[in-house]
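Lecture notes, part 5. Sequence design as translation. It can be helpful to think of inverse folding as translation between two languages: the language of shapes and the language of residues. The source text, in structure tokens, appears below.
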């Protein structure tokens, strides 16, 4: 362990890490199902699916086999001027699952970039349509959409990116109609949010290109939940003003909320949807922006001027696409949505215990996600991702063999779907012990 850590320390700059104050990383040797194993053989239950990526479990044999089979055929090829079966197949399948006119799939490599693509497509769509004044976006308070520049701009409501404020494009933020278990005021909170959205549209409507939203729950901005009705009202309000709707389902997609995609519970469809993380079962970097065919049509022309000038070296990587195909098939073969239902039932049972806990407020459960806020704590006052309390809790959980990383005062579990009952129980017990610390 020590040798690897000292080499890491000498050469590596980790993401979202304050290297001066944070503990050393844990050196891992392997991972299986819902567990990580360090080089000394200690097990850590991955209760947050490694940044919400792992769906069917770490090192799933079917996924590994698909990757090896594809590696033996073709690992990579440029994606302009060439195509291949794994990319076409995943595009067909996603389009089939999403339905409607969501039939044009643009590949990229991570969540941030798929958001960047959606924003660029929206912006250029209006130029191509002769409405070049539509250059601004609407996003939600508390939203996180990634950390490239466009994604930071629409995610400025997360509070992560204040250092870059001056460089970000124009975005109007509106309140998210959040809710939790036992919330009696949700209707008025939603009404206030919709009124704010309508006011923004009334003031800036014909300059807005698109609105971007995480349906059913906001992830990194604090695991805030909203009702399907709220998502529907947002979409209807935006559409009435001709504004394009982008759903960021990078965190909510692939079963996290109990359905394959969160918006399928909301009786609405977006004009574009961003997917990543669970797309490859959390195994390789891949993302897609799935786009309504009528938007795609606006990029057709007799020369390049209307085309989308965007693409990356690893766009449509065959290895990643082949895994995405295998992962989607596993949802049916392993009846994954049923497994998620069982996790949700278990969360609901534990939530009843949390509801009466003196240090807990705003308990919420949706699919495989359980979240709550710590009440009466330093963390609530500090309120940031890297607050001292959340770091203290994170270290405590790790010492207990649990990978749980609070977001400021927000504590949550979002395990891989292969988690066992016993592992979930260990997670709940760890949460209760952790609460004694605050
Ligand atoms: C909702 C949402 N959008 C976008 C992103 C950015 O994805 P990535 O980290 O793969 O760039 C994330 C990452 O957590 C996310 O949760």
């Amino acid at each position: 362990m020590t040798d690897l850590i000292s080499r890491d320390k000498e050469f590596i700059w980790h993401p979202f890490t304050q290297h001066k104050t944070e503990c050393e990383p844990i050196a891992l040797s392997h991972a299986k199902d819902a567990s990580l194993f360090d080089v000394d053989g200690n097990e850590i239950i991955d209760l947050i699916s490694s940044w919400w990526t792992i769906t069917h479990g770490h090192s799933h044999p079917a996924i590994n086999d698909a990757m090896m089979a594809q590696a033996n055929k073709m690992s990579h090829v440029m994606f302009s001027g060439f195509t291949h079966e794994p990319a076409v197949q995943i595009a067909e399948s996603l389009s089939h699952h999403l339905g409607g006119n969501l039939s044009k799939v643009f590949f990229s490599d991570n969540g941030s970039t798929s958001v960047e693509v959606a924003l660029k497509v929206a912006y250029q769509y209006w130029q191509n349509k002769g409405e070049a004044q539509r250059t601004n976006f609407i996003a939600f308070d508390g939203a996180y959409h990634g950390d490239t520049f466009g994604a930071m701009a629409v995610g400025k409501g997360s509070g992560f990116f204040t250092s870059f404020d001056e460089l970000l494009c124009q975005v109007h933020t509106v309140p998210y109609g959040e809710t939790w278990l036992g919330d009696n005021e949700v209707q008025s909170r939603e009404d206030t949010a919709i009124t704010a959205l309508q006011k923004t549209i009334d003031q800036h409507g014909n300059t807005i290109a698109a609105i971007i939203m995480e349906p059913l729950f906001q992830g990194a901005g604090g695991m805030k939940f909203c009702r399907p009705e709220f998502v529907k009202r947002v979409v209807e309000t935006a559409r009435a003003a001709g504004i394009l709707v982008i759903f960021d389902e990078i965190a909510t997609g692939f079963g996290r909320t109990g359905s394959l995609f969160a918006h399928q519970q909301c009786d609405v469809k977006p004009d574009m949807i961003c997917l990543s993380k669970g797309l490859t079962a959390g195994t390789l970097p891949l993302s897609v922006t799935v786009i309504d065919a009528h938007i795609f049509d606006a990029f057709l022309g007799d020369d390049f001027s209307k085309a989308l000038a965007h693409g990356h070296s690893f766009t449509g990587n065959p290895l990643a696409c082949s895994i995405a195909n295998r992962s989607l098939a596993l949802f049916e073969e392993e009846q994954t949505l049923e497994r998620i239902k069982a996790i949700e039932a278990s969360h609901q049972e534990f939530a009843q215990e949390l509801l009466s806990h003196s240090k807990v407020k705003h308990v919420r459960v949706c699919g495989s996600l359980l979240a709550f806020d710590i009440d009466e704590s330093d963390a609530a006052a500090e309120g940031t991702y890297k607050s001292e309390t959340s770091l203290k809790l994170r270290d405590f959980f790790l010492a207990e063999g649990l990978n749980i990383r609070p977001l400021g005062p927000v504590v949550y579990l979002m395990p891989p779907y292969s988690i066992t009952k016993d592992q979930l129980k260990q997670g709940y017990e760890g949460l209760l012990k952790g609460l004694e610390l605050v």
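The translated text above is only one of many valid answers, since several sequences can fold into similar shapes. The chain has two domains: 2-56+336-435, 65-331.
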